[in-house]
Description:
The chain is of the alpha+beta class. The protein folds into four domains: 3-154, DNA ligase, ATP-dependent, N-terminal domain (DNA ligase i, domain 1); 163-210; 224-421, DNA ligase/mRNA capping enzyme (D-amino Acid Aminotransferase, Chain A, domain 1, 2-Layer Sandwich); 432-579, CATH 2.40.50.140. 41% of the residues lie in helices and 20% in strands. Strands 13, 14, 15, 16, 17, 18, 19 and 22 form an eight-stranded mixed sheet that branches. Helix 4 (62-72) packs across helix 8 (126-140), helix 6 (90-98) packs antiparallel against helix 9 (142-154) and helix 8 packs antiparallel against helix 9 (142-154). The longest helix has 17 residues, at 194-210. It is globular and about 75 Å long. The structure holds adenosine monophosphate. Adenosine monophosphate binds at residues 224-225, 244, 246-247, 251, 266, 296, 336, 373, 400, 417, 419.
Amino acid sequence: MKLHELADAFEHLEGTRSRVALVERVAALLRRATATERTPIVYLLQARLRPPFEQTEVAVGEKLLAQAVARAYHVSHARVAQRLARSGDLGLVAAELAAARLASRLTVHQAYDALLAIARVSGTGSVERKTSLLASLLSRAGPAGAKLVARVAQGRLRLGVGDQTILEAAALAALGDRSKKPLLEHAYNVRSDLGTVVDLAFTKGAAGLAGVGPEVGIPVRPALAQRLPSAEAIIARLGEVQAEPKYDGFRLQIHRRGSRVWAFSRRLEDVTSMFPELVAAARRQLVPRTAILEGEAVVYNPETGEFLPFQITMTRKRKTRIAEAAERTPVRLFAFDLLYTGRRNYLPVAQATRTHALRAALRASPDAPIAVTEARVIARPRELQTYFDEMIERGLEGIVAKRLDAPYQAGARGYAWVKLKRAYQSALRDTVDVVLVGYFRGRGKRAALGIGSLLGAVYDPRGDRYRTVAKIGSGLSDRAWTSLRTLLDAHAVPERPVNVDALITPDVWVEPAIVVEVLADEITRSPFHTCGRHDDEPGYALRFPRVVNAPRSDKAPTDATTEREILTLYRQQRRTPTEARPRSRNTRARGTAKRAPR
Ligand code: AMP
């Protein structure tokens, strides 16, 4: 396939608003691709070159890309800047400048290999080398191809095609029926490499997909917890449970094969270099030489034994501070699950057995960096409530109650795990993670910051789209507003992204990329929001929302609270009328000024 053919297909997708049509067009594209083109095309559809855990992305900044564009078409920087100011999109600038050139004969393979080579450039002189390779590729790509190359280089394709859409399209193209998507989903949850899974669907069919097991070095999509409003509700639904403390840290999946150890984040990124002390500990403490386990990494003060808040855990993102941080505030991993050993795939195995096997797989000692999370089997609501209260007393976030006989539900937010968190000063006992899809410039003092409120949405996995649930205007300091705006501007788009369903139009639309944690008083019906809206029924909205944590960079947009969860929360608050009673604005203001310590 020629690059310009792929670029034309992408352009077609970009203009497609109907999801059914989108799935069909992606399916047609996959069918048209040859066997070796399929995997690269799947990654390109996601504006990437390889799966997230490989960290092989071009990811160049606007400045470098603008330089490459100027060089490719022999125009001045000023001219590129001028055109960029007009369209706001270097992809379009490249396409305009390339228009005068001869038709491109570049193939998808050639372009993909060139992009990979650019992504792999490192060391001294790498900026210059990347610029010249990118310029050379752009000059050969033709107008549509140049737009695609420029956008992939920035990691923003603006197609609105999410993983769920690709899985459905692949089910249609490879298995002949979009209803076979769960087969692909299962494989993708266990082996989070979309390119490989789509290829497997074509080459090995349903049987091949069903046979996919965990593989060391490739993260398993993490199981997530549902929420229920009380200890009674948990026991009523799950029966006897295994109750565990809920640590508020950084979720890690540790993989080991011999002396090689990986750490993956909840977003499936390779974060091994952030946790040198855990890598060393995994080699020492893990009994099986091949294993995958999961836990929550928490920073603690070795002198007081006290846990430090989540934000501090996150400072390790800055590479230069890692060695210093590992010394001063070491990390402890509270392991809570075992997914795989060289001998056995534990995913289908019952929770109680997995926990037992986890204990046997770790050489634990009181001060060792990897500890097994304590777990208590509890059958009575009163006892569960007492356990919860104890955990809160200990400064923890709450508890996670786990069904004893449930398998590990990779990639799913099921009722096998239920979280119960500290009651905030609010009718809602838990925060909601919303994806930002736009912002308003604001009035008065905020106008000076250029941002006054946010348009937040929740995720609808079935429609692979984001539906608005709140307009959020409080909870952040001026500095935090400004830095959030910078972050949002990097994702700004001229019109509503295709995968956003909204009735409200913000001043600036942004692609769904950034997640913030929001606390609200309650959920109300609303004619302005699209979450839960169907036919003539109004939607649902968060009442008095305020940001309590932004951005939650450990969460991908698809990890945000789902539309279904909002409906459940709405029903739950109705069942506990005393808690759901709306309170006056004054009470709320006092209640939220101070968030209970994490
Ligand atoms: P949430 O992020 O609010 O959906 O809560 C789920 C998260 O709690 C998981 O993704 C883990 O990172 C974290 N967590 C903390 N302690 C545990 C535990 N004992 N079992 C499972 N998850 C836990």
